[in-house]
Inverse folding.
């Protein structure tokens, strides 16, 4: 199985490779001891059934059977699945679909292997949503409303708009059959509506939060509709969950990732750059940005004390960002840890032809492949950073398949909760987003939120130019 496993290389975080900014033996030993306590905390959280995402790779066949039934019912009748969801209800689906079907998947015609397109509408931007709704053939479109809480304003507004349009066009009964909910199994307005009006509804287990939900029906349904092998995705996640369950620090990729990232943060490296050398993995980098930011950016520790912790995650793409952000990464403040994602087998390759042998700018490229070029660039960038004493992690992917993605998604989620345990915060909540939601409700006239309207900043100030 080794050739199908992802590999995490942390050598460029160590002093013996990058010099003084790296960790020395003593510091690694200390981290190893710290991870013993982290292991116990995570084991307790799993025993208390708090880490619901950890069970998803082993989920019983009931939910996947429901998903497969819906896929068989709809697959040949539609060309478009529109996911209405935001944050954790959106980013994982985009990440996996983009990784497998490519960054151009929505711009190019569907193929036999890619029978339908998934459109993830993750904003309350009218310009963006209007142009999507008006361009899709509504007779060939299915909607999946994804919301754990069943009350997120952006998603609910989209649902109401789509509902009314479909009602007018198809009549109420047919319209309703075109909308599938994914939500909490017991709570929330969507669950209530599903029961009252008979909408088809998939379950997102109550103990799985949005940003940890990609391997639940939140991601699995749209991904199965798009033709991806969800069993292989779960199998990959299972293989990784086993690797992440071992107590030995040096054998556990999630613990190594968390320990390297958090020790870098403790050394004032406030930024973690996720930089795949694969354009199609940019969505995955964006999914990680949310996971890391929303999980670890916290004011309070578990004792309720002010701690104001968190590491800013940034998405970049190699080699594209070598011509954009790399200058900053190489010479700017020593406040970053980079994490490269490199790929052994790109699945497709292009040979670079020998056309102008007399010109050095072209001749060295002739006869080499494009994958050789991008792999050399990834290696060169990691080495250049190391030579400047700047740390990095490298995650090596053998190829891009559902199995490999399942491993990667699980590893990064396990690393995030391990990092949360190191910081002694709750990585599963997001209290900091509540105030802006309440102020929005106040502005939009939701009853019970009048006091928040009064707190809003006034727009007319003398400080406008
Ligand atoms: O990770 C999270 O919990 C959030 O990003 C949510 O996914 C996001 O706010 C959407 O919430 P909901 O699924 O309840 O609509």
């Amino acid at each position: 199985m080794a050739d199908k496993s992802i590999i995490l290389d942390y050598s460029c975080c160590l002093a013996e490779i990058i010099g003084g900014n790296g960790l020395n033996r003593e510091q690694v030993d200390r981290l190893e001891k710290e991870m013993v306590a982290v292991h116990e905390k995570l084991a307790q959280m799993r025993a208390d059934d708090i880490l619901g995402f950890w069970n998803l790779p082993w989920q019983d066949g009931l939910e996947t059977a429901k998903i497969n039934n819906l896929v068989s019912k709809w697959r040949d009748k539609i060309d478009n699945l529109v996911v209405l969801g935001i944050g954790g209800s959106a980013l994982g689906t985009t990440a996996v679909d983009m990784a497998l079907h490519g960054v151009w998947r929505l711009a190019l015609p569907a193929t036999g292997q890619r029978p339908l397109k998934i459109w993830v509408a993750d904003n309350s931007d009218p310009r963006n949503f209007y142009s999507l709704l008006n361009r899709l053939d509504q007779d060939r479109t299915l909607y999946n409303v994804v919301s754990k809480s069943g009350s997120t304003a952006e998603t609910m507004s989209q649902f109401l708009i789509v509902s009314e349009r479909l009602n007018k066009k198809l009549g109420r009964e047919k319209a309703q059959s075109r909308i599938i909910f994914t939500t909490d199994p017991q709570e929330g307005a969507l669950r209530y509506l599903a029961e009252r009006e008979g909408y088809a509804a998939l379950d997102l287990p109550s103990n799985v939060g949005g940003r940890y939900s990609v391997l639940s029906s939140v991601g699995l349904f749209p991904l199965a509709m798009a033709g991806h092998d969800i069993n292989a995705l779960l199998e990959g996640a299972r293989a990784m969950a086993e690797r992440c369950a071992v107590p030995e620090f040096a054998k556990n990729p999630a613990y190594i990732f968390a320990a390297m990232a958090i020790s870098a943060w403790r050394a004032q490296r406030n930024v973690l750059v996720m930089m795949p050398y694969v354009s199609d993995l940019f969505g995955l980098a964006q999914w990680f940005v949310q996971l890391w930011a929303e999980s670890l950016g916290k004011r309070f520790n578990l004792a309720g004390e002010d701690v104001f912790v968190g590491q800013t995650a940034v998405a970049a793409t190699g080699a594209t960002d070598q011509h954009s952000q790399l200058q900053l990464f190489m010479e700017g403040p020593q406040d970053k840890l980079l994490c490269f994602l490199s790929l052994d087998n790109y699945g497709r390759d292009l040979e670079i032809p020998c056309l102008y042998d007399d010109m050095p700018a072209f001749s060295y490229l002739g006869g080499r492949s494009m994958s050789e070029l991008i792999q050399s660039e990834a290696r060169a960038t990691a080495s250049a950073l190391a030579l400047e004493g700047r740390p990095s992690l490298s995650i090596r992917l053998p190829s891009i398949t559902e199995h490999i993605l399942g491993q990667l998604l699980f590893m990064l989620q396990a690393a995030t909760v391990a990092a949360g345990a190191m910081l002694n915060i709750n990585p599963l909540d997001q209290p900091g987003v509540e105030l802006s939601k309440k102020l929005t409700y106040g502005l939009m006239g939701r009853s019970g939120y009048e006091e928040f309207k009064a707190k809003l900043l006034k727009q007319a100030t003398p400080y406008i130019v």
In short: The chain has three domains: 7-46+233-423, 53-228, 434-465. The chain has a mean pLDDT of 95.
